[in-house]
Design brief:
Radius of gyration: 15 Å
Strand order of the largest sheet: 4-1-7-5-6
Helix content: 25-40%
Strand content: 25-35%
Low-confidence stretches: none
Mean pLDDT: 94
Number of helices: 5
Number of strands: 7
Largest sheet: 5 strands, mixed
Shape: globular
Structural class: alpha+beta
Amino acid sequence: MIRIGHGYDVHRLVKGRRLVLCGVDIPFEKGLLGHSDADVAAHAVADSLLGAAAMPDIGQLFPDSDPAFEGADSIKLLKRVAEMLAERGWRASNIDVTVIAQRPKIAEYEPLMEKNIAGACGIPTGAVNVKATTEEGLGFSGSGEGIAAHCVCLITDGGD
């Protein structure tokens, strides 16, 4: 059996925070605001996997009201999501992530991002794609107020 999932996340850019995308620290004058490390891309991946498996979203599993998740490493949370899927007989087959940001440019970091996502999910790096796009100066991401990420994934029941 196969299922498809979609995830979306957005966080505001602010001074005084580090910018983490797919577990990679990106040098930038602003970072993403959130209870955890605010890694929008890892959050979108987690929600896509959870959605495909018809499980609760990351906000329910790792609530921002729980001090245990303050400053949490989102790649570790993603690894836990992959483990939870495995406990139910599912595994990721492929993952496709789009980061939406006017700045910074992330192309040079994409291979490491793909490696981090693949490692957390226990799949080959070649089964993960990370890319970025701008919004040509339009909307909140285009004006530099925030960064968003979309992810689509395919999960299988392990029997392929």
